[in-house]
Description:
Elements: H1 3-22, E1 52-63, E2 66-79, E3 84-97, E4 100-106, E5 108-119, E6 126-129, E7 132-136, H2 139-144, E8 151-163, E9 166-177, E10 183-193, E11 198-209, E12 212-226, E13 229-240, E14 249-258
Antiparallel strand pairs: 1-2, 1-14, 2-3, 3-4, 3-5, 5-6, 5-7, 6-8, 7-8, 8-9, 9-10, 10-11, 11-12, 12-13, 13-14
Signal peptide: 1-33
Protein name: Outer membrane beta-barrel porin/alpha-amylase
Keywords: Signal
Amino acid sequence: MNLTGHRIAISKNLAGRVLVALTLGWSAATALAAGGPPMVTDDPETPGNGRWEINVAAVASRTTGRRELAIPDVDINYGLGDRIQLKLDLPWVRVSAPDLRARSGPGDTEVGVKWRFYDDEDSGLTISTYPQYMHALTDASVARGTASPGHEFLLPIEAAGEVAGVGLVGEVGKNFVQGQKGQWIAGVIASHPCGDNNECMFEVRGRHGEGQHATLLNLGVHHKLDDSLALLFAAGAERGTRSDERRQTLVYLGLQFTH
């Protein structure tokens, strides 16, 4: 087996271990909401029938030769029934590099459908799948460098529950990228209340493919301002293979509106 194949095998084993860990040992309590914005790993929760969840944020990232700021990044979610969530993400992106002038324009548009197909009230375990498709809104965005060329399709499975008062969320899947071999992803979030109306979160998320691997370490806070408004913040960085895609910093700051 070559080195790339060995890393892909490792990533598959990692994904399997994450899924197994998330299906064992849940307490009977209701799971804490821990995934989704401001974190990268998602959870199985949906807004509820006829309800909206809208996240408006600034998302900044830096790699070896590129700085990117999505402002605003508008993430619109709608509950179609109690188990299905429809998603539309529309970012406006500004990119800069040492040898190029700053450019701005629409980023990658993302649409998705989440289906929570398993709920166990006794154990608190929930499981979903969340297919998501991403593509540039216009060819001009690709030419300017604010959006990626080609198509991407993420096919993950999420699970969530609670152990000893700690909310746990896990996600495993594969991201299919046009013209590439794609990437395996696996992420885990642990969350716990940390003061009045605050929930603190810690995330570990790995991605593996094309002979490269990176692991994101991310810290986040969900601060509830009132019943329909929350402040979201997260900051982290990736470690792993040196590449132009490895995010040396990743910062998320936004507001979440629910109705």
